[in-house]
Specification:
alpha/beta, Ribosomal Protein L15, Chain: K, domain 2, three-stranded parallel β-sheet, 6 strands
Amino acid sequence: MTSLNTLKNIKTKKIRVGRGIGSGKGKTSGRGVKGQKSRSGVAIKSFEGGQMPLYRRLPKRGFNPIASKKGVAIINLSDLQKLIDTKKISADAKININTFKKSKLFRKSISKFKILSNGDLNSKIDIEVDYSSKNAKEKIEKAGGQITIKNQVK
């Protein structure tokens, strides 16, 4: 008894285009007549005949971090301590976005700022921010300072 899978060894002949009218693929080689697609070296990628292409029909996806949003400045605790040590900002007065703008540390286009916990803070400060990391808040309070987060939902 022979196996049903005897078609494995059969190879189909390669179609040789442009080899005469009798081959069925002669003259225009199955490309039709004239036009962009009849020429060699043409690939119309993602063109769907005037229909809105798939890549434009699908929504944009992905994560947009808050730091990349326009008008949000980020400052680390280590940078804040350096500014206090170099006396560019005073630790005695309340520190907010206007303090940084007056001392020309932030551009005018900055409308909000976030404080991050990278580094250590030795000074006792009173600061008002738009955003803060949990660790930064803990470090400020541990140093004896006070932090106020604007527009915080409780």
